[in-house]
Amino acid sequence: MESFKFGHASASHWEEAAQACLIQMGDLSHSPANLGFLYTTDLLAKNLPDILEYFKQKTGVSHWVGSVGIGICSHAKEYFNVPAIAVMLGQFPEDSFSVFSTTDDNFENFSREH
To answer: Could you tell me the end-to-end alpha-carbon distance of the chain, in angstroms, rounded to an integer?
Structure first.
């Protein structure tokens, strides 16, 4: 993959923002991407499982990292106090990254497992 594919958008419904992000990324049918980065504003936090599943299905990328924040920035655009999504796809050597499962407060278990 010569460069990252990315998109960002704000909309009143997460589905509209997610679709706008996909449109910005263009044709992904032959994309070699294997790692996705997903960021949403806190106004979409409750929808994050649905948003993540949507992008997994639409991109074919199974490994994702990201976060929720009070705001996100992408490509000279800032989103604060609005529902927004920023997403990026990249291709990395499979042995160059490791995605950890969500952690809780028990860091002893996390440390032991990883």
So the answer is: 29
